[in-house]
């Protein structure tokens, strides 16, 4: 039985069937990776919710968003500015033990990026903040989030839909904001 199956598999038709199965599995996997918006396992379970509720502004930790292309992730020394004065930081059961260890050993925390566009796409935060867009317009409501995750896939249709909406009747603006060279160069 096994032998007959094997003989069939190595026939041309069998090989084609196997390749199709492999391809199908592969694209399914790629599709799955693209669509699941599960937050990755971060080195520290950093709770956005707690910090936002405490009144810390997005731009305090991500100041690059107002100044340039990338928003940036705060360094551990910025965390430590607050946490060295917070009692909970010394609680050996808290997530904060990982922050304390990173600060004491001087090893940078390796955050795993979640909000990203491919390298061939030019995105600049500053232009959007200057145009009056809010963080939540693109990143969703983070006040209830524990781990950061993407509310939507940053695909081309999503960028273009907002650009078309913002251009309104301004033809020159519409041309600029939908020109391939505006986002790909
Ligand atoms: C106290 C500092 C702090 C504040 C305040 C803060 N963040 Fe963050 N943010 C972080 C850290 C640390 C990470 C990396 C960990 C993670 O991805 O969960 C991060 C990650 C992110 C990410 C994912 C970036 C990526 O690709 O890894 C987004 C988007 C984000 N923050 C948006 C916001 C917005 C919007 C606000 C305000 C509503 C905000 N943050 C407030 C510290 C902060
Ligand atoms: C502006 C001050 C401030 C900054 C900056 C800040 N935090 Fe916090 N963080 C707090 C406060 C306040 C709490 C709540 C502490 C409590 O519950 O007693 C907190 C709670 C936490 C907790 C949850 C602890 C627990 O066990 O519930 C983690 C984890 C954490 N912070 C990590 C970080 C990291 C990592 C950074 C830097 C990226 C950072 N914080 C920057 C003020 C800050
Ligand atoms: C017009 C949509 C838009 C707005 C508004 C926006 N972002 Fe982003 N954000 C993005 C996109 C797209 C990326 C991925 C950029 C990349 O891969 O180069 C991103 C990436 C990030 C990242 C992770 C990588 C990095 O360092 O850039 C953080 C953190 C972030 N944004 C925070 C913020 C904060 C805070 C605000 C508000 C002050 C904000 N964003 C406003 C679309 C937006
Ligand atoms: C929430 C709406 C919104 C979304 C989503 C959005 N944009 Fe924009 N974008 C704008 C607005 C508004 C402007 C500024 C228009 C103007 O010049 O007044 C702009 C301008 C730009 C510019 C021109 C910047 C400059 O220097 O003049 C680029 C490039 C750009 N966006 C890329 C992107 C990319 C890439 C994405 C998707 C990853 C995206 N945008 C998603 C609203 C948006
Ligand atoms: C507002 C910004 C913006 C403009 C304008 C834009 N693109 Fe894109 N483009 C993107 C983003 C973002 C992606 C990444 C899509 C993803 O990761 O799913 C992308 C991806 C692509 C890809 C890769 C295939 C894919 O779908 O992932 C091609 C090819 C492409 N764009 C061609 C073009 C052409 C041609 C034009 C002009 C007609 C254009 N783009 C205009 C933002 C833009």
Can you characterise this structure?
With 185 residues, the protein is mainly alpha-helical. It has 3 domains: 2-35; 48-150, no CATH class; 155-185, no CATH class. Helix content is 54%, strand content 0%. The protein is built from 12 helices and no strands. Helix 6 crosses helix 7 (96-105) and helix 10 (156-167) packs antiparallel against helix 11. The N and C termini lie far apart (57 Å). The relative contact order is 0.12. Mean pLDDT is 83; it is low at 25-36. The structure holds heme C (HEC) (5 copies). One heme C binds at residues 117, 121-124, 127-128, 131, 133, 137-138, 154, 158-159, 162-163, 166, 177, 182-183. One heme C is lined by residues 58-59, 62, 65, 70-73, 115-117, 123, 125, 128-129, 133, 135, 137-139, 154.
Keywords:
mainly alpha, 54% helix, 0% strand, 185 residues, 3 domains, 12 helices
């Amino acid at each position: 039985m096994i032998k007959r199956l094997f003989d069939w598999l190595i026939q041309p038709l069998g090989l084609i069937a196997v390749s199709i199965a492999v391809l199908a599995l592969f694209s399914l996997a790629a599709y799955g990776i693209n669509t699941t918006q599960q937050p990755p396992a971060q080195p520290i379970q950093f709770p956005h919710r707690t910090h936002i509720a405490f009144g810390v502004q997005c731009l305090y930790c991500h100041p690059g968003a107002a100044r340039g292309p990338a928003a940036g992730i705060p360094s551990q020394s910025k965390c430590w500015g607050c946490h060295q004065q917070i009692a909970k930081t010394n609680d050996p059961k808290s997530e904060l033990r990982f922050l304390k260890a990173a600060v004491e050993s001087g090893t940078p925390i390796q955050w795993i990026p979640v909000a990203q566009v491919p390298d061939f796409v030019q995105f600049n935060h500053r232009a959007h903040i200057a145009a009056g867009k809010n963080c939540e317009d693109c990143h969703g409501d983070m006040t209830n989030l524990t781990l950061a995750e993407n509310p939507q896939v940053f695909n081309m249709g999503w960028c273009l839909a907002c650009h078309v909406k913002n251009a309104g009747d301004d033809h020159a603006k519409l041309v600029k904001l939908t020109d391939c060279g505006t986002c790909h160069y």
